[in-house]
Amino acid sequence: MLLALVAALAVPVAGAASADSAPADSAPAVSAPAGDAARGAELAALANCASCHTAAGGAPYAGGYALETPYGVFHGPNITQDPDHGIGGWTWPDFVDAMRRGRSPDGRHYYPAFPYPSYTKLHDDDLADLWAFVQTIAPVAQPSLDHALTRYRRRSVLGLWKLLELDRGALRDDPRLDAELNRGRYLVEAVAHCGECHTPRNGRGGRIDRKALAGSELPPEPGPNITPHEDALGGWTADDWEALLDLGILPDGDFVGGEMMGVVEHGTAVISAEDRRAIARWLMEGVAPQPP
Amino acid sequence: MTLLLALSLALPASAGDDAPAASIQLDAQKVYAYRHEVFEGIGAHMKALSMMVKGEAPVRQVDMKSHAIALQAMSTTVPHLFPKGTGPDAVKDTEALATIWTDPEGFAAATKAFQDSSAALVTAAEGGDMKVFSGAFRNVGKSCGGCHDNFRKDDH
Question: Among A15, A64, A180, B145, which residue carries the largest CB count within 10 Å?
Answer without folding.
Answer: B145
